[in-house]
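Hi there,

I know you've been waiting on this one. I reran it after we fixed the sequence typo, so this is the corrected version. Both the input and the resulting structure follow.
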Amino acid sequence: MVFWKSKLESEVSDKVAYVTYIIPQFAAAYKMNFPQAYQYLKKYGGLDYIFKNWWALHTDSDYWALRSIYDICYQNGGLR
């Protein structure tokens, strides 16, 4: 028996995979541990930005995706 993922399930799975990939990358790039990075992103709008724009971010290189996320946080008051 073969189970096929629906398009929605596939998109949700891809989104979760990207979010769980990019947060540790952000933490490493900006010299934070995972909980610090998560709280920073949550406080300064980076997490919302990732969830809303994950499809576009995942097509960028890691450098530009992380820079875009950082810029959003910086615009919302995040200094690091």
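Quick highlight: Helices lie at 7-29, 34-43, 46-57, 62-75.

Best,
R. S.
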